[in-house]
Amino acid sequence: MNEIDLLKEKSDQSISIIDQYSVVMNDVLNNENKIIKLLSKFLGKNFHNAFEKVKNEISLCPKLIEQINGIKNQFQKKWTHQYYNLVFTTINSLTSIENSLIKCSNGLSGINENIYLDKNTNARNDFINSIQDILYNNNKIIENTLNRLYHVKSFDSIKDIEQSVVIIGANGSGKSSFSRRTKSIFGTNVSIISAQKIFNIQRVNHILIDSVPLNSVHEFQADEKLGKDWGSQHKYSEDLNNLIKSLVADHHKHVEKYYHTSEVKRKNYPKSKLERAMKYWNEIIIHRKMKYENYNLNIYPPRGEHYEFPRLSDGEKAIFYYVSHVLLAKENSYIIVDEPENHLHIGIASKLWDTLELLREDCKFIFLTHSLDFASSRIQATKLWNKKFTPPDIWDVVLFPNDEEIPEQLLMEILGSRKKILFCEGEKSSIDYKLYSMMFPNYTVKPVGGHIEVINYTRAFNKSKEIFGNTSIGIIDGDYHSDNQKTKWIENSIYCIETQEVENLLCDERVLKAGAKQFCCEDIKVENAKVHFFNSIEKNIEYQAIDYATQKINNTIKNNLLKKSRTVDGLKQEFNETIKKLDIEKLINERKLLLEKILNDKDYDLGIRHYNSKGLVKLIGNLIVDNFDNRILKYLETDSGLLFELREKYFKIVPLD
After folding, report:
1. What kind and span of H or E run contains 289?
2. Higher model confidence: residue 398 or residue 357?
3. Which of 8, 107, 542, 563 is buried most deeply by CB count within 10 Å?
């Protein structure tokens, strides 16, 4: 029987059991008083609360049947082996109550006070045991199965993905809760490598030949690791100990197995898990060698005395810890690693997990991380975004958007933002980022380079706002863009500041005066700075006019790209029509007229809006005080009133949130 038929058969069997469960439980409720009298007499307990839970279970039966039918109807061959097992074992778990239902049903068919109080001891005991199973041992089985199937939906995005998975989310986004809840579904077929680690180790002074240490490792791997009881720290402190003890025990069994073989064959026998763990550690920590001697692990540096395992750094211990856990994980299991970058340099972490994924190709790795560097290093992995977590167990885990228009690293940085996104020019050290972060505190500000990147990323992000659950705006420098182009950009939430360069804002007269006052400078310095500004315009009129014409021509060409003409003459005609729009003399003259007007009127405010120079803030601001740009930015953090004035003056059309 193939997997599809087997799942359908188990689904139909489980639905039949649920129907039977509903019938038997309704009979139990109808005989509530008799059953309570019987159980109280022989067990001396009060069972009234148990019957309230039965009523709740019965009400959930139709919902569970609906969920099972939904899964049965959507099953596909391309599901991964792990996902199929997840669904199958969850549905199949309902068969555990079948025998109890049969006994309970048989007992109910003949229930009366006399037969169970005075006669037929075996039948009475069977009935008591089965009713206890139903009321207690199988209590909440319908509710728990339903919750488990709800949680299966969290895996919809990876059910047909064979490679490893990275789930990305910020601290507090529910990643660890996700792993704990997943454990409760997968049962023992999961190994959880916790983010919390205590690298405590004791000397091994005897050889362990039983399976106790390995059982302890598997129990810890499957443990929810909630840290909710006094024994939790003890579990963590014994983890590394049990790993090493398990590896040592396995090693000696392995050696014993091949001890009586010929010398030639003995040289070629497969390595034990301990030997393999040391091999992988030695390949990563190449300047030292780990050896197993006299029941303990010793480290040999290139020079000097060897030393024991406890003297290793936490990072070096972490490598051995991860390798050991992965080697000892059960076959065909999920290996869930919470914060896999812990204690490790990103370069080593990437190399380590590359090795371990190849080492256990039978397992599926699920990495839970908030490290964008680590997530980016998993090139072949499928990345998921933990979009939202609603306690106690609802995760909105979605496939990471594969948007070629926005770099993956940038997407990872902005997806978790609870604020809207503001794309701007520059980088994190630039004035753009610092100033906009203060002016627009309700946005997450992301500098992305030039104005083309701002435009493209804003459009791409807003095009997929349903996926991201968020929207963005973009702010770019004036750069002589036409009014017609600015209007079109506004329709796409992209706004031009009313100066050619963002740093011109720091040369606003109100800002200069505030700086002079704050830094205890004479008022005359502001006037001197303005005079220097006008002198600079006068000196550079020709250059400014040429620069203006050059950028205007470039903008015109960029915004009037040639279409694909079918003929040579058509292409020439279109090109000539585009060139005709460009009157260089006119552009230069109109710019000169504006600059001359600024000089004649001594219109400082208009000059700040139209003068184009990357070094303007140093040219003017440093006449007030040295390092003016950095010092005034720090001051602006404390003056919300001045920030408001600048925003109203230069960014009035930009939404505040």
Report:
1. strand 289-293
2. 357
3. 107
25 touches 138 (CB < 8 A): no
Are 201 and 240 a contacting pair, CB within 8 Å? yes
Is the pLDDT at 314 greater than 50, yes or no?
Answer: yes
Nearest to 473 by CA among 504, 503, 500, 440: 440
Residues 449/452/453/455 CA torsion (nearest 10 deg): 130
Residues 6+ positions from 401 with CB-CB distance below 8 Å: 385, 411, 415, 464, 467, 468
Find where tokens 């001045």 sit.
642
**Which residue did the predictor score with more confidence, 221 or 239?**
239
Compute CA distances 264 → 134, 205, 269, 272, 275, whole Å.
61, 31, 9, 17, 19
N residues, the chain = 657
In sequence order, what DSSP letters do the residues of 3-71 get, joined into one string?
HHHHHHHHHHHHHHHHHHHHHHHHHHHHTHHHHHHHHHHHH----HHHHHHHHHHHHHHHHHHHHHHHH
Q: Which residues make beta-bridge pairs with 290?
A: 299
d(CA 51, CA 57): 10
Q: How far is CA 384 from CA 85, 225, 254, 263, 411, in A?
A: 21, 23, 40, 51, 12
Report the distance separating Cα 317 and Cα 546, nearest Å: 64
What predicted TM-score, i.e. pTM, was given to this entire model?
0.67
Higher pLDDT, 478 or 573: 478
325's tokens: 């856990």
In angstroms, rounded to a whole number, what is the distance separating the alpha carbons of residues 277 and 247? 9
pLDDT in tens, 525-556: 999 999 999 999 999 999 999 998 888 888 87
Q: State how far the Cα of 230 lies from the Cα of 613, in Å rounded to an integer.
A: 65
419-438 per-position pLDDT tens digit? 899 999 999 999 999 999 99
Identity of the amino acid at 53? K
The average confidence (pLDDT) of the chain is 83
Cβ contact 148:185 at 8 Å: yes
CA end-to-end span of the chain, whole Å? 59
Q: Mean pLDDT, to the nearest integer, of 238-267?
A: 76
What whole-number distance in Å separates Cα of residue 254 and Cα of residue 273? Answer: 9
Distance CA 71, CA 7 (A): 9
Helix (H, G, I), strand (E, B) or coil at 364: strand
pLDDT bracket for residue 229 (50, 70, 90): very low
d(CA 509, CA 527): 9
Locate 604 and state its tokens: 């400082």
Across the beta sheet with 443-447, the strand order is: 443-447, 420-424, 472-476, 494-496
3-state helix, strand, coil in the chain (%, to 5): 60, 10, 30
Radius of gyration of the chain (CA): 36
Q: What would the two tokens of residue 386 be?
A: 């933990």
Contact 342, 204 (CB under 8 A): no
